[in-house]
Design brief:
116 residues; alpha+beta; three-stranded mixed beta sheet; globular
Length: 116
């Protein structure tokens, strides 16, 4: 059974997770927005998704584009959590994981680092 949590509280946890990002990385984030949505319509169990051009892949041709997006999927995360502490941990892991993609870190490396 999914853990129940208001959208407002969940969004606060996403903000708290963003505060975990070291300042030098937070400053380096560029042209990216983080959104909370209920579910990914194509994959309802997906916890988060980065869509864009990673900083490591941007060239001098990069410009005039819409921001990259990081989607954090509230209901999918709540589905796998039993307590608020579980939600806090899963939100932090998911936010860090998706921000890492913005920096060009792939899933294999994230798993090696414990952020899989």
């Amino acid at each position: 059974m999914a853990f129940a949590m208001t959208r407002q509280r969940f969004e606060e946890l996403v903000g708290d997770a963003l505060d975990l990002i070291p300042e030098e990385f937070a400053r380096a984030m560029d042209n990216v927005v983080i959104l909370v949505e209920d579910r990914n319509p194509e994959n309802p169990t997906l916890l988060g998704l980065y869509h864009g051009v990673a900083l490591t892949e941007r060239t001098s041709q990069y410009g005039g584009v819409l921001p990259d997006t990081i989607n954090i999927y509230r209901e999918a995360i709540l589905d796998i959590c039993r307590t608020e502490d579980d939600v806090v941990e899963e939100v932090a892991v998911t936010v860090v994981h998706e921000i890492a993609h913005h920096f060009g870190i792939d899933d294999a490396r994230l798993h090696e680092l414990g952020w899989g």
